[in-house]
Amino acid sequence: MRDKLKMSLLLDFYGGLLTEKQRDISELYYNGDYSLSEIADDLRISRQGVRDSLVRAEAILTELEEKIGFAGKYSEIANNNKLIKNTVLNALEMQNADDIKASLRKILAIIDDESNV
Known about the structure:
Elements: H1 2-14, H2 20-31, H3 36-43, H4 47-68, H5 70-93, H6 97-115
Helix pairs in contact: 1-2, 1-4, 2-4, 3-4, 5-6
């Protein structure tokens, strides 16, 4: 399941660089949760043709991510934003100034790490 989520994310970032057929098949498989047989029936091609197209699309998407890395950077930024939000929410509940300062330092460290990305 994790691989499907990863491929769906890569498809969102790089799907426009696939052929129309590869993109359509990948969209149905990863985002529409269609089986290979269902896609084959809908597109009137063989199940093996669907599988071959998916394998090629996966290879292209994976290679693009290895070279460009947009999806990974996006995920890292999204995770850091969640961490910052949770730290701020926790700090709002704190009464002790030292605890609040520690939370602010944590936020600054996250921002500094993100700036080096």
